[in-house]
Amino acid sequence: MARADCPDAGPALRCRLRGGEAMNGHHDIAQGEQAHGGGASTSGAVTGMAGHPAGVAVRIAVVIPSYRVRDHIMGVLESLPHQVSSIYVVDDACPDRTGDRVLAECRDPRVKVLRHQVNLGVGGAVMTGYREAIADGADIVVKMDGDGQMDAATLPQLVGPILRGEADYTKGNRFYDLAQISRMPRTRIFGNAVLSFMTKISSGYWDIFDPTNGYTAIHARVAGKLPLAKISRRYFFETDMLFRLSIARAVVVDVPMDARYGAESSNLRISRVLFDFSFKHLRNTVKRVFYNYFLRDMSLASLELVAGLGFLVVGTTLGAGFWIESARSGVTASAGSVMLVALQVIVGIQLILGFLAYDIASTPRRVVHRLLGRD
Asked: Which of left, alpha, beta for 41 (phi over 0: left; psi -120 to 50: alpha)?
C-alpha cells in the first residue's frame, strides 16, 4: 500500500491510497480496470464535455465525507458507476473508524482515504476532498454522502449539465416530483421551505430549491477559484457554497432526484440550526448586495435600493413620531401627516420591489468555467 502526502490540507491530514500503487492524478477513466472485491468496473469513459479537448476522457472525481457511516460506506463505494475515475473517502476523525474499514475491505484502485486528525465538520471534509481532487487533475468533482441516501445511479444526470456546458455547479432537488414529497417527514418539508427562501435571498439564485441537498457536482476550474478556506465547515457549507458561487457569477442548476430514506439518520436538526442559519443568511445577503451592486458594479437597481431604504426608514420614523406625539397630546394626527408618511412608505416599498425584480432577473445564466484556465 502506497502513501501520498497532502500538503494543501495541513499537518492534521494524512492520505492513504488503497491499491497496488499510488494513483496517478491524471488517471484516465478510459484506461481503468476491473476493481477487486466488488468495486465497479473502471473500463468506461466520458469524452463529451463542452470546451474539453476532443477525444480526451473527462476525469470525474467523487468526494465522500465520512463521519459515523461505517455501516453504509462499503455499499456506497460499490454502487459508484464506472465513469468515476477517482474516489476520495474523507475520514473526518470518525469515532467508528470508517476510514480503517475502507482500507481493510475495499480493493477498488480508484479509492483514496484522506484522514483528519481532528473533526472539521462536513464542510471541512468536503473542502479537503476538493483540494485533493483538483490537485490530481479532476475535471468534475461530485460530492456524495456516505450514508446511502444518495442514489449513485443518478450521478450521470447530475454531471450532465456540466458536461454539456450548461452549468458550473449542479445540485439535487428532491422537491421536483410532487409525488415524492409525501415520503418526506413534515418537519423536513417545512424546514427546507424556510431555508430555501432564505437561501434565495442570500445567494441570489432565485430559481433553486432544496439548498441542504448535499448531492452536488462542480466543475474543477470553478472550484479552484473559490476561497475554500473561507467556506463554512459545518452544516451551513452547502448554502455558503451557493453564496460563494453567486459572487463568482457561476451558473447553478437543480437536478430532479428522488428522496431516499432508509435506516440511516441525519445529523442535521433544523431546530438547532435555524437561528444560526438565519444570522449567516443575513450576513451573506449584506455581503452579496454590497459586492454585486456597489463594489463590482453599480446600476439603476443600486439607486433603487438606496432610495427605497431611505424612503422606508424616513417614512417609518415619521410615522412613529406622529403616533407618539398623538398618544401624548390626545390629538389625532392630521390627514396631511398621515399622507406624508404613507406616501414615503409606499414609494420606498415600490423601489425595493423594483430592486428585487432586477435581482431576480440577474440570476447568472452564462457559464464561467469556459472562461477560466487551469492553474
From this structure: beta
Q: Which residues pair with 143 in a beta bridge?
A: 63, 216
Local structure of 189: helix, strand or coil: helix
> φ and ψ at 117, to 5 degrees?
-75, -25
CA distances from 27 to 42, 61, 85, 162 (A): 11, 11, 7, 20
Helix (H, G, I), strand (E, B) or coil at 363: coil
Q: SS3 for 294?
A: helix
Taking alpha carbons only, the member of 60, 162, 40, 176 closest to residue 109 is: 40
CA distances from 206 to 44, 47, 211 (A): 37, 32, 11
pLDDT band at 50 (very low <50, low <70, confident <90, very high): low
Q: Would the pTM count as exceeding 0.70?
A: yes
What are the start-end ranges of the H helices in the chain?
73-79, 98-105, 121-135, 155-163, 178-181, 186-203, 220-225, 237-247, 270-290, 300-329, 335-361
pLDDT of residue 312: 97
| Angle at the Cα of 110 from the Cα atoms of 39 and 65, rounded to 5 degrees | 95
